Amino acid sequence: MTKQLSLAGRTVDPPVVLAPMAGITNLPFRKLCRELGQFTARKLRRGGAGIYVCEMITTAALVERNPKTMRLIEFDAEEETRSLQLYGVDPVGMRRAVRMVVEEDLADHVDLNFGCPVPKVTRKGGGSALPWKRQLFRRIVTAAVEAAAPAGVPVTVKMRKGIDDDHLTYVEAGKIAEDAGVAWVALHGRTAAERYSGTADWDAIAALKDALEVPVLGNGDIWEATDATRMVDQTGCDGVVVGRGCLGRPWLFGDLEAAFAGREDGLLPTLGEVATVMARHASLLVEWLEGAQSYESRRNISAEEHGCKEFRKHVAWYLKGFPVGGELRRSLSMVSSLAELDDLLGKLDADAPFPEQTLGKPRGRTNSPAKVTLPEGWLEDRDDCTVPEGAEIDTSGG
Length: 398
Hints:
Number of helices: 15
Number of domains: 2
Number of strands: 13
Strand content: 5-15%
Helix content: 25-40%
Low-confidence stretches: 38-48
């Protein structure tokens, strides 16, 4: 596997990108994913030199310097490429936000969100609904690229196939983004209507790769490292974007590094080794929040308790398939201190092998297809550049 991908003057090796996920890809989780190479001889090895994108940031919240948003765009000193994803529906607001990123040196890479399928976003014309308005899409992408150009900050686009099977946009939108000067285009092989159901359409990724000169990254149904290499082989894409597949398995990035290097030396972690990763994840969350006491104080909660509460959502993903009793699972999912977590993790069967029956299976949210909620009259005129009233969202993170 010899794909060469570059961004912001650096080679992306392996050609792997962590997808932005609301409430997940904060600084601690990104740090953990970078730290974990793979389990070799039952020892953690450093690795995972891909691109790790922060949670979705809205242009309005960034420009207004919303405290939560400013917290979400903090990066670790070891993040060589600080990657920030922006969501916006207004070209003026997008230009202003990217200019702020450039002038204040907030990031090294800006990714534009045109893939979010959630109703609160699409009903405002944003996310995966926006490429349908091709001229508005063009103006937004162009505004971002032009604002980023003086500092040489690359702009990329992440999108879906379209609104639904009757309103596909990905090839046309990809060409528009390419003409605007983006560094690459990433495609999730589902429509907005499909949400996270069914099977991702890798043929669409291949079609987009055939249509564009800029690099194309594929996204959708990468549950194992072998899925990533298979996607590259099958579609010809230049890299992959990994989302739900790493939930409860941040060491997946080590497996990906090995797979793209042509190695097969990764080992599946025992429950004891997973417990070590869980403890590290929780401690990183607490450490991160300890630097935001003014933010925490408004919630009348300590950084440790808040960090442990944030960690709770990850427990089921980490323990998926392992032989852990219901009472212990419940206790772990209600943990409120690091000492309590350490005590409970010590009760796990450290020698329990990794549940291989979970390999290749979906992780995280799955749902059924649904009609996409759109602004009134959204489908009528594709060349209308009017920004929907109240389209901008002032809360980052999805």
